[in-house]
Amino acid sequence: MFRNLSYKVQKRITIISFLILPVLFLIVFTFIPAMNMIWYSFTDWNGYSLTKRFIGFANYKRIFTNPANFKPLFNSLYYFFGGLIQIAIAFYFAVVLNSKVFAKNVFKGLFFFPYLINSVAISLIFVFFFQPQGTLDAVLKLFGITGTPQWLGNPHIANYSLAATSIWRYFGYNFIIFLGAIQSIPDDIIEAAVLDGASAWQRTRYITIPSVKNIIKLNLILNISGAISVFEIPYIMTSGANGTNTFVIQTVNTAFTLQHVGLASAMAVVVLIIVSVTTILSNVLIKGDD
Questions:
Q1: Is 154 within a domain?
Q2: Does residue 108 sit in the same domain as residue 24?
Q3: What values do phi and psi take at 240, rounded to 5?
Q4: Which tens digit of pLDDT belongs to each residue from 142-185?
């Protein structure tokens, strides 16, 4: 029966058949939980009670009338600026390793390897790296540097340590994305620039950067949303202590420690709105520069 159908109908049925399962998973594991979260945000549910009392916008009022709730958002700036540094370094090495460099495939693997490791494992590795008398202190001691601070215990330094961990964790992702974009640039354009006497910097400035500007914009947008919603690294390494609390960690603690699931759901909705609005505005502003 299927063979008797036209090619166009067969193609449509095939596409729909392959999409049914992913769409079903998306609905069950994303859309339905999101709708439930929005509903919970209008209740005083504690997470285990069978009853959920509707309280309207009381949770949202509680969030916006207490400035302390948004204080952890300022810690996102450490990850945002760390992300900018990460993007710049990743782009630099992508440009370098796109040229003829000794053992460049080895370096590509080394740079991308951290992204393949689970965030929990990386966080635990860096806990030992930053702990007193740990790896970092031992290396600094070899150079005669002693009296080092508590990298995760000092509120003035802890966020820098966490941001550095985040840079190392996600550097490989940006590096591979940039490298793929740079390698897609036609060779004849580069060869023509070389014949015209363009230096490496001129080729990068006038050919490479304009050719991958959309990838740069994408990474900038992802950096903004990632900085706002950062969770795994600070939660595992410091549990939000010593001034490293983030809005998402605060939301999780509100839900599972204080058992205010309704309030935590409202906070999660606020984060979702902030990330969505920031991403849309960033996209609009970036497109406006084209």
A1: yes
A2: no
A3: 80, 10
A4: 888 887 888 999 999 999 999 999 999 999 999 999 999 998 88
